[in-house]
Amino acid sequence: MTIGTWDPDADQAHISPEQLKAALAYTDPETFPAQAPAELMPIQALMKSPRSVWQPLLAALSSSDLGELCRFFTLAEARWADWFGGDKNPVIWIYKDLKARGDMPDKALALWIKAHSENRFLPHGNLLG
Fold first, then answer.
1. Which of 13, 90, 107, 123 has a 20 to 30 A CA-CA distance from 100?
2. Are the C-beta atoms of 117 and 74 separated by less than 8 Å?
3. pLDDT tens digit sequence for 46-70
4. DSSP string computed for the chain
5. Distances (CA, A) of 84 to 63, 74, 120
C-alpha cells in the first residue's frame, strides 16, 4: 500500500523570482548581515538544488540581477550557517546561465567570488564532474 510520495523539489517549487530579488539588497560584504533575514529563509532550500530547478527562476531575471545574485550566494555560503552549497552552489548555475545568455561574466566577478569564498567549486563548478 502506498500512502504518498516524497518530492525533494516540493519545497523549492514555491520560490519566486521576486523572492530572489529580495536577496539583491544583500550583496555588499561590508554591510552583509550576520544572520539570514527571515524574508530570505525560503531561499535556503535552493542552496543544493540542481540546475534544472534554477533554470526557470533565472530566466525571469536580468543579467545584472544574476551577477548580483552571484555575490549574494557567495556571501551567504561563506557567512551563514546551513547555507552550504558546495559543488551545487547556485553561483555555479547562475554563472553558467550568464554564459549561455552570451553575457559572459567578466573576470572581475570571478575574482570577486574567489576572494570572498573558500568554496573551490566557485564560480565554474566541478571541473572533474
1. 13
2. yes
3. 999 999 999 999 999 999 999 999 9
4. -------TTGGGTT--HHHHHHGGG---TTT--SS--GGGGGGGGGTT--HHHHHHHHHTS-HHHHHHHHHHHHHHHHHSTT---GGG-HHHHHHHHHHHTT-PPPHHHHHHHHHT---TTTTT--TT-
5. 24, 10, 12
Question: pTM of the full predicted structure?
Answer: 0.88
Per-residue pLDDT reduced to its tens digit, 76-104: 999 999 999 999 999 999 999 999 999 88
CA angle, residues 6, 87, 110, in degrees to nearest 5: 135
